[in-house]
């Protein structure tokens, strides 16, 4: 088995300036083997067949994998992404149909989607659409399932999968139920290795739940440690956060040996000027916990042990704390180092797995 390691086209530095073709070339220069552009509209805002074929040919010529996707499939979130309706000339279903047809035409058949938006400008739980006050999360899940049911015939006709990300607002339990309700022949999962931490899910436990349905990935790591009012989440290079990739990667590749491992890294402040991000997880708040009815005491305990073990590494000086890391500059050079360090960590794990599989078993 040869696992290919690539990069999220939204997060690689200078992607907006370089465009899709230039981003593919840049990824190759950095030693990566593919690019995952989340939306086909990022390859061509008008779904121009010539533009799409040009990107496909560029990827093929360089021996790179090319993955892409659709967008939000939550009818309560779609209005916040007006391009999804605009591409259908006002008809949202037609817009999705056109995007799916365009993807199939360039043989991109694993299509990313997510279930809601994230608002990092809001503190605590209100950053996630799970905690909207105008519509309940249960109502949103019903609407998502119905919308996916309407997209399912298109997916079957075109031979594509709509893959739902383990995004920040949804639990892996809910994703699995959506896949099984609509049908795993057309719905899959994009396993983001760190997002489920927002939902108080242990990365290894999450991997085991979603593995049978994983068709795309976002590989990333995160700091999770105690602070005022709860835990604080902050992205870190792979191998320097709480995710144990020595366990997670074999689970995912064991279930789907052909899956690509796409790094999702931290955007440079040059590409997206902003204050350093940190997310408050209100894990000791009753309202927060009530919103996770599938969470078991056993998994909660395992999650907190992982946090405690990570805090011990920080206390020992092995890793920087949240504020120290946030104060460090993060421009182009730092973003590239983040990518290279993450890729090296994942390659090392994949190589060790290949070596272990190649060893003869003793009788």
How would you describe the overall organization of this protein?
With 363 residues, this protein is α/β, with parallel strands linked by helices. It is built from twelve helices and eleven strands. The strands form two sheets. An eight-stranded parallel sheet has the order 7-6-5-4-3-2-1-10. α7 packs parallel to α8. The longest helix has 27 residues. It is globular. The C terminus is likely disordered.
Fold blueprint:
Layout: E1 5-8, H1 15-29, E2 34-36, H2 49-61, E3 65-72, H3 83-86, H4 92-105, E4 110-114, H5 137-158, E5 161-165, H6 172-182, E6 187-192, H7 203-210, E7 214-218, E8 221-227, E9 230-236, H8 245-255, E10 261-263, E11 279-281, H9 286-290, H10 297-315, H11 322-327, H12 332-358
Keywords:
363 residues, alpha/beta, eight-stranded parallel β-sheet, three-stranded antiparallel β-sheet, 12 helices, globular, disordered C terminus
Write a brief caption for the model.
With 363 residues, this protein is an alpha/beta fold. The chain is 43% helix and 15% strand. An eight-stranded parallel β-sheet has the order 7-6-5-4-3-2-1-10. Strands 8-9-11 form a three-stranded antiparallel β-sheet.
Low-confidence runs (pLDDT<50, min 5 residues)? 358-363
3D shape = globular
Could you give the distance between the termini? 24 Å
Largest beta sheet: what is the strand line-up? 7-6-5-4-3-2-1-10
- How much strand content do the residues show? 15-25%
How many E strands?
11
The gyration radius over C-alpha positions equals 20 Å
The major pleated sheet works out as: 8 strands, parallel
pLDDT averaged over residues: 96
How does the helix and strand content classify structurally? Answer: alpha/beta
H/E series? EHEHEHHEHEHEHEEEHEEHHHH
Helix content: 40-55%
Number of helices: 12
